[in-house]
Each structure stands twice: as C-alpha cells, then as structure tokens.
Amino acid sequence: MSSPLLEQLIEALRVLPGVGRKSAQRMAYHLLERERTGGQRLADALAAAVDRIGHCARCRDFSEDEICPTCASASRDVQQLCVVESPADRLAIEDATGYRGLYYVLQGRLSPLDGIGPAELGLDRLAARLAEGEVAEVIIATNPTVEGEATAHYIGQLARQHGIRPSRLAHGVPLGGELEYVDRGTLSHAFGTRSEMG
Amino acid sequence: MSSPLLEQLIEALRVLPGVGRKSAQRMAYHLLERERTGGQRLADALAAAVDRIGHCARCRDFSEDEICPTCASASRDVQQLCVVESPADRLAIEDATGYRGLYYVLQGRLSPLDGIGPAELGLDRLAARLAEGEVAEVIIATNPTVEGEATAHYIGQLARQHGIRPSRLAHGVPLGGELEYVDRGTLSHAFGTRSEMG
Ligand SMILES: [Zn+2]
Ligand SMILES: [Zn+2]
User: Fold this and answer.
1) Is the pLDDT of residue A174 over 70?
2) Which ipTM value was assigned to this complex?
3) Is the Cβ pair A62, B91 closer than 8 Å?
4) What's the rounded mean pLDDT across residues B127-138?
C-alpha cells in the first residue's frame, strides 16, 4: 500500500455493514479522488454522533439530549404509545403515517435463547410508564416474526394488567417481513386499520 | 428524526459510492447500536486521510509523504516503469505480481470529449521522467478499453521518442474489463507474459 493512512482508512471502512475489503478500497479511493469535502464532513458527523448520541431516558430511541425532541414535544398525544423494536421502525412509522402519539423503542425483541428477556428490553420501565396512568392505548408494532409475536403477546398482557387496551397493526404487513422494508402505503394502511388485540 | 446529529450522519454517509438514503440509515444505526468504537476509528482515519493524503511528486500515486515509500525505496528497479490509470490498478499489480520496478499513476485516461488530454494526466512530467535516462522499459498497463488503448498508444509513442521500448500486458486480461477486477492469477500471468509493443 502506498500510504499507511490509506491502509488504515480501508480497514476502518470495513466496520460498515456489508462492506468487504474490495468495497472499502473503492470507497477510500472515491473519497480521496472526488469527495474530500464530503469525506471531511462524514468524519465530523461520525465523530459527533458516536460521541454525543445516546438513548432518550423516556423512550429509549437514539437521542443526543436526555429527553428526545418527540418525548419533549407538547404537541404529541400522550395517550397513545407505540411500541417498536428499533429506531429504524420508529422512523418508518413516523415517515409513513400521520401518527401524533409517543413511542417506546425496545432496542430488540424477546429472544430467550440469546439471553434477551424483559429486562434487556426495558420492559420494567415500560411497565412503570403504563402505571403512570396517562397512556390509554398501547399500539404494538413489533415485527411479524416469531420473536416479534412473542414480544407483542408479552406487552399485550402488560398493558391489560394496567387496564390499558393493546392494539396491533392491521394485516397488510407481509408475514415474516421486516417492518423497516415495507412500502409507505402498506405501512400507512396497516397502521390506520390496526385492530384491538384479541 | 429523533436526533439532528443522527440526521447529519445519515446525510453525510451518502457521500459513499452506491449508498442511498436507506443504506445510509442502516449504516448509521449499525454503527450506533453495535460499533461505536469502530465508528470512532473510522472518523479518525477518514479525517487523517482527507487531511494528509496527497499525491507523490514522483509517481502521482496517493501518498502522505512528498515522495511515496515505493518511489523512495532503494530496493526497486529504477529501469522499469509501469504506467497505470489509477491507484487501485497499481495496487492490483503490486498485490498479484512479483514486480519490483516503479510506477506512474495517470489518475485517469485520455478522453478528449471530457477535456482530459495529456496535460491532465501529467504526461509532460512522464516525458521529463523518461528523458532522465534511467528508465529502460515502460510497461503500459492501462485498461483494455477504447480510451485505455488510445492512452497506451500515446505513451508508447512517447517512450519510443526517448529510445525506450514500450511493452503491454499479455492477452489474458478480458477485453472491455477493468483491471481492478481481474483475478490475481490472470493478472499475474498477463503481467509475466507481457509483450513488446508492436
Ligand atoms: Zn424519547
Ligand atoms: Zn511515488
């Protein structure tokens, strides 16, 4: 390699998902040949994000503040709480629907074999939140997978224990699919026609 | 978006080749969820590379020094000069063959319609280099495309003007292909059986 710094950059790029040695090399050359300003901007954005983005104390979504802008907003409906597995799922719902309630981001799904139980998903804090009495509807938007369904079942019971009605997105989300990849129209329809949990 | 810094990171990632909004989003979440240390390392490597990697004054390859390690090395054969289009091509030859001569990186190919002529490829400096009298063989390893062939023809004439024999890689490199993607074995064979230019 003609430059140790270039070699370091190529190795460092491999931290990105799906990027092998060859892609990393092409990315490095592309940045150095044609996008130095964009490369500097990326370096700055990445350093700031890694250093300053944590989790919202209220909803567990990514946030650079103690409480994220959504949770802190006075214009959201505090009676509705939508529970999702990941920040990407939360973003997909926010983008596709007109939902104005709040969110709770599990950062995962129940998976006993991987050692992921209720505590790892912050379900104790979710229970405390439901006990506050503000939430009237828990919209469970976990993925339609085996583990997502088990997680939904658990949260549905939790809601009922606090006298809150749980609902799920309507059929329309493809079985076995990932919420994040559902097209806007389908997701918006499924969200709008969500049904009370049986 | 739950965090302005996250939004900035996603936008900044789109500077990478082939990365659209959705991939950028997945990359950002992956880094924040699972690879913060690697993300910080990438930020540092990128900032250092963009700031400190320039071009070798002798061969035009990427280099963080005025003269790159290859050009500065006492153990390379100064009688052989291999001319390539890009740093990636130089790296492919260095990796696949036992070549111990020097390189000249054009950083492009002749393309009159795009305004890329001899001056843009530093061919004046290449001519000055050949005039120094050290080089005995110019190995022309441009890509086997129309523009690459035209570039090879031009450099072949330049070599002959200085009484130096030009050679080209042997057949084996697929026509219309990009050198960078040729497998090691084919490239090594083609390099070893290069022929004098007709
Ligand atoms: Zn929040
Ligand atoms: Zn050099």
Assistant:
1) no
2) 0.76
3) no
4) 94
- Domain B4-52 - what CATH class? mainly alpha
**pLDDT tens digits, A7-34:** 999 999 999 999 999 899 999 999 998 8
Q: How far apart are CA B4 and CA B20, in angstroms?
A: 19
Q: Are B78 and B132 in contact (CB under 8 A)?
A: no
- Residue by residue, DSSP assigns A68-120 as -HHHH-TTSEEEEEEEESSHHHHHHHHHHS---EEEEE-SS--BGGGTB-TTT
Q: Is the pLDDT of residue B191 over 90?
A: no
Chain A positions touching B9 (Cβ under 8 A) are 45-46, 48-49
Q: Does domain A74-168 have CATH number 3.40.1360.10?
A: yes
Furthest-apart CA atoms within chain B: distance in Å:
67
Q: Strand A195-196 to strand B62-63: parallel, antiparallel, or no bridges (unpaired)? A: unpaired
What is the model's pTM?
0.75
C-alpha B80 to ligand 1 mean position (Å): 63
Are B9 and A49 in contact (CB < 8 Å)?
yes
Predicted confidence (pLDDT) per residue in A72-100, tens digit: 999 999 999 999 999 888 988 888 888 99
CA of B152 to the centre of ligand 2 (A): 20
Q: Is the pLDDT of residue B28 over 70?
A: yes
The two structure tokens encoding residue B84: 């390539």
Domain(s) labelled CATH 3.40.1360.10 in chain B stretch across: 74-168
Q: Which of A32, A63, A86 sits opposite B49 (nearest CB)?
A: A32
B-chain residues within 8 Å CB-CB of A91? Answer: 1-2, 25
Q: What are the residue ranges of CATH 1.10.8.420 in chain B?
A: 4-52
